[in-house]
Specification:
It contains 13 helices and nine strands. By secondary structure, the chain is α/β, with parallel strands linked by helices. α10 links the parallel β4 and β5.
């Protein structure tokens, strides 16, 4: 193609835009434009990193600052899911991945009106980036990931309402909130960095989630008598010393578990390999991550 480079670039942008609209719709194009607004979080010395995990490292140095500031400042809290560091760290699921999660959900379950109500309720806090998923509603693709995990837990382990659940890496509390609003477990233990726990507490209180939580510093995980351990990538993003503490105090004492695994800690923090982990956890099995969000990602499950 010959011509003015600026004209060629403009033409390509137009083609890409029309292609995106044809695939996802004009309403979602408008959402996409609104979703571009993000804000940066200043790094504060009050929340230093200690390199226990990916989100506790220099790569995401302002993540703890964002969580700590949002936990005590309502103005920041009201838009915390528009923070660039929150999006980079965990709230970055794409519209394409969201649609793929819906396909996986429908492969084993019919869509419930309760799903739509709970997703919209959880998304009412923090001003998240949202898209329209016809005919189910308008919500964050990240919550569709959490819903798919919830469906997996139900399919593998049955009803969750009488279980004591421990979640390694609570984030802003989205997974925990969704599980508690849909299935009302007996007890829920949350492990993460202190400022992240503060944000999760505020988030769940704002959504009037039933008060059955305990919050434990994820840098020093205490012994947990849980019936089910879950982790969305967090365990596989920790250094080996912290992984050892979780294995001893949280994972191995639990008769059931569901860990979505990537190899970030193995590559950058000296963490366990997948092969090492399944040798350590008795009767653990490897399942494919569906949909696959990155090469090498799998789900490790035991107690089924």
């Amino acid at each position: 193609m010959k011509g003015n480079p600026e004209d060629i670039s403009f033409l390509r942008r137009c083609i890409n835009t029309f292609s995106w609209i044809a695939k996802h719709g004009l309403i979602n194009f408008k959402h996409q434009r609104r979703n571009r607004w993000l804000f940066d979080t200043p790094l504060t010395g009050e929340f230093p990193v200690s390199n226990t995990s990916v989100t506790d490292s220099e790569v995401f140095a302002s993540y703890s600052s964002l969580c700590g500031l949002a936990a005590r400042n309502m103005e920041i809290f009201n838009v915390f899911r528009r923070s660039r560091i929150m999006v980079d760290a965990l709230d970055h699921v794409s519209i394409q991945q969201g649609k793929a999660y819906i396909v996986e959900i429908l492969n084993s379950n019919s869509w419930s009106n309760d799903f739509t109500k709970v997703l919209m309720h959880v998304d009412s806090v923090g001003e998240p980036r949202k898209f329209r998923f016809r005919p189910y509603g308008t919500f964050s693709p990240t919550l569709l990931r959490y819903l798919k995990v919830y469906i997996d837990l139900k399919n593998f382990f049955g009803p969750l309402k009488n279980l004591k659940i421990a979640e390694i890496g609570i984030g802003f509390g989205g997974q925990a909130t969704l599980i508690n609003l849909l299935d009302n477990p007996l007890q829920y233990t949350c492990f993460d960095l202190p400022p992240v726990l503060d944000l999760a507490k505020k988030f769940m209180n704002q959504l009037a989630v039933p008060d059955r939580y305990s919050f434990i510093d994820g840098r020093n995980p205490m012994h947990s008598n849980s019936d089910l351990v879950i982790s969305n990538y967090a365990f596989s993003e920790m250094n080996r010393n912290i992984q050892d503490q979780y294995l001893k105090n949280v994972i191995l004492p639990s008769p059931r578990g569901y860990i979505t695994w990537n190899n970030l800690a193995e590559k950058g923090f000296g963490g366990y390999t997948l092969a090492e982990l399944v040798r350590i956890i008795p009767s653990s099995q490897i399942y494919p991550e569906r949909p696959t969000t990155s090469e090498g990602n799998v789900i490790v499950i035991w107690g089924i």
